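Ligand: iron/sulfur cluster. Inputs:
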Amino acid sequence: MNAASSSNAAPEGAQSGPACGPGAGPAARRLAARPAYPAPPQPVVQPLPRHAHAVGGLVPFSTVDWPGQLAAVVFISGCPWRCHYCHNTELQTRAARYDWREMRAFLETRKGLLDAVVFSGGEPLSEPRLPQMIRDVRRMGYRVGLHTAGIYPLRLADIMRHLDWVGLDIKADSQGYDDITGRRDSERPAQACLAQLLSAGRDFECRITWHPDWLDETRLLALARELARRGVRRFAVQGARRSPDSPPVRNLSAQAEALMRQWFQEFDYR
Ligand code: SF4
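Predicted complex:
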């Protein structure tokens, strides 16, 4: 499926006459027959009530937030941790910046073009209405993915059977966890979430945002080896960046990368 081109091109194609060039043919005619799609919802002007769904953002189309899936990403505002490298500080405080009914209506228009909806954050499990939001998008036929730092194991257990894929952040080894998160005893819930994912047999990826000043390569390799020993099959190292669009501050050595490629069924350095 190539919803990337479909979702972006359909409105223009539908209104600008017959398709031509490489796009012509049955697929192009199907695109041309589609109605124009509404623009993604905008942030609300008036603040929503405190009990409203804490939706903080939307990426209408992503190929990277769930490897192999074309997904919309719904960002939940609210996170009790304070990682010093957090790029989403505006999503740390609970706030409803988008109307979930508008977002649901928008997602209805993307049915058949996207495979999945990923809930990210902030920490999506901080939203008490997440189970209902998951039901909403499941009813539309979407697969459901979750990005989590593993802060709420009981909440994860409640929704586990409704998830198709999870991206679990591993912040550091035991020695470095609290230094990253700014919270005491923060490794414990994350390890509980990892244990649940391993025993539930869910498709999931562990990933770490890595900088050698926080965790040198020797410790990173020890952590990765332990994850592999416990049964983690997919692992990703995300090089720490000054901003989301800049290159990694420091590169992983070729030797470390080669070792992790051996240990995991899938390893990604990004
Ligand atoms: S867990 Fe994620 S959202 Fe929360 S502070 Fe850390 S990096 Fe930011």
